[in-house]
Write a structure and sequence with these properties.
binds 1,3-dihydroxyacetonephosphate, single chain, about 45% helix, alpha/beta, about 250 residues
Length: about 250
């Protein structure tokens, strides 16, 4: 049986002072529970020292598809490992839309993460106009297909998928539990057609304006196995409440 997993995506937020309080609070409030925080690169060492030995894992929000070399400004998978990361977000919609990451580049990053032993949290999701034109499933299928073609369906046994409808990210608009469940079931069904065991074990997180107040009804859906939390992961009480809802 797969378990729920909640991950916080801090995005480009925080400071040494703010993070210290948040990390200490998460560690204490969620002692013994599994959860993940994905922090900006400069704060990985801080997350490592604050969370080492606790049940909370930490990770990054992006990585290079390259292993090393003349790639100014990039950060490799092995560098993330040096700071104890277990997870890395790959293909977040903000990376795709603001920084031009193609499906193919996302697949290369996914493979670079796995090659180093990191667990990629692979983000997929449609834009508002794609949903309005009724092509949500086609978009999500294409995003998944490129990764599966490159890395193989079996690779998903060592990955997390996050469904994040772009129109619900940071907008306060959440997909209804039914809307989210429909896409999650589509994703699981698509993977089950290739490998049912991988599909049954796959954690599929929902992301997009998840808050303490809506977490329980989203998490009650049979194919929603946790959340990828943006804004609410920066508020200790919110993040803790969401993680507790996922542990029920
Ligand atoms: P919000 O929870 O702020 O909508 O962000 C979701 C997200 O993008 C997490 O990766």
């Amino acid at each position: 049986m797969r378990k729920n997993l909640v991950a916080g995506n801090w995005k480009m937020n925080g400071s040494l002072v703010e993070n210290a309080a948040l990390l200490a609070g998460v560690k204490t409030a969620l002692a013994g529970m599994e959860a993940v925080v994905c922090v900006p690169f400069p704060y990985l060492a801080q997350a490592q020292s604050a969370l080492a030995g606790s049940s909370i894992a930490w990770g990054a929000q992006n990585l290079s598809e390259q292993a090393r070399g003349a790639y100014t400004g990039e950060v490799s998978a092995s560098m993330l490992l040096d700071f104890g990361c277990r997870y890395v977000i790959v293909g977040h919609s903000e990376r795709r839309s603001l920084y031009g990451e193609s499906d193919e580049m996302v697949a290369r990053k996914y493979m670079a993460a796995q090659a180093a032993g990191l667990i990629p949290i692979l983000c997929v999701g449609e834009l508002l106009d794609e949903r309005d034109s009724g092509i949500t499933e086609r978009v999500v299928a294409r995003q998944l297909d490129v990764v599966i073609a490159a890395a193989g369906v079996a690779s998903l046994a060592k990955a997390v998928v996050a469904y994040e409808p772009v129109w619900a990210i940071g907008t306060g608009k959440t997909a209804s539990p039914e809307q989210a469940q429909a896409v999650h079931a589509f994703i699981r069904g698509k993977i089950a057609a290739l490998d049912s065991e991988v599909a049954n074990g796959l954690v599929i997180q929902y992301g997009g304006s998840v808050k303490a107040s809506n977490a329980a009804e989203l998490l009650a859906q049979p194919d929603i196995d946790g959340g990828l939390i943006g804004g609410a992961s920066l508020i200790l009480e919110e993040f803790v409440a969401i993680c507790k809802a996922a542990a029920k």
